[in-house]
Design a protein that fits this description.
Layout (H helix, E strand, L loop, with lengths): L1 H14 L4 H14 L14 H6 L14 H9 L15 E2 L6 E2 L12 H12 L20 H11 L7 E3 L2 E2 L9 H4 L2 H9 L1 H4 L12 H11 L10
Antiparallel strand pairs: 1-2, 3-4
Helix pairs in contact: 1-2, 2-5, 4-5, 6-10, 8-10
Length: 232
């Protein structure tokens, strides 16, 4: 069963031009380190049962999502991206003032050796989303006013309710975004914000029906988070 599941991953790695032993090593690493929590192939089921069972974000489109250098480094020294985990309702303790994360319920991500991280990152970057999901050159790269960007992020579109724009600034139910420029490809950010459920049918994030100028503005602003002066 496992070999049938992982053949598409192995085929993707072979397509990179890696010889068979390297491709088999990648398949072995992904099976041992990733498959128990992450979907490496597009799942057939996208119903509510899978939502409750999911242990980590899907990776079958990792090559259209992550920046390769960041992914390789992160696999060697993983740090939390989602403060409350992929299903935050499991890791929140009640509080009168705000959601408090129960860190004892969160499992640390396994660390890979430098050599395994190189192989795993190559394999994950070979997993691409269909062209219709991630708009090539969707983000135009225009400059964004920090003040206007922050206004849209924090007030007009409410992104800060779920996402942190700086450490301990913003919500905790979604992934933090102050490392987005290093972590994520601009076209992925743009496409995901435009239609999140097209990329991940089970994601909690609402479809905000963003206009094209708003999507460009928010993408540009998110890519500045973490830089000095990004928080007016």
């Amino acid at each position: 069963m496992k070999k049938r599941i992982f053949m598409p991953v192995l085929a993707s790695v072979l397509a990179l031009g890696l010889h068979a032993p390297a491709a088999l090593a990648a398949d072995s690493i992904l099976e041992a380190q990733c498959a128990s929590c992450h979907a490496l192939n597009a799942p057939e089921k996208t119903d509510i049962d899978r939502l409750w069972q999911r242990q980590g974000p899907d990776l079958h489109y990792a090559g259209s999502k992550f920046n390769h250098p960041w992914l390789e480094q992160w696999l060697q020294d993983p740090k939390p991206i989602r403060p409350a985990g992929v299903l935050y309702t499991r890791h929140i303790k009640g509080s009168d003032k705000e959601d408090v994360i129960d860190g004892a319920t969160l499992k640390p991500h396994p660390k890979l050796s430098a050599a395994d991280a190189v192989v795993a990152a190559e394999a994950l970057m070979a997993l691409k989303a269909p062209a219709e999901l991630i708009a090539a050159d969707g983000f135009k790269g225009g400059k964004v006013s920090a003040t206007m960007g922050a206004m849209f992020f924090n007030k007009l579109r409410g992104c800060s309710a779920c996402h942190q724009s700086a450490p301990d600034v913003g919500g905790r139910s979604g992934p933090e975004l102050y490392s987005a420029a290093a972590r994520l490809q601009p076209d992925y950010i743009y496409s995901y914000m435009k239609h999140p459920q097209k990329i991940d049918p089970l994601v909690w994030m609402p479809d905000l029906s963003l206009s094209e100028p708003d999507a460009q503005r928010l993408t540009g602003y998110i890519l500045t988070l973490g830089e000095a002066g990004s928080q007016p």
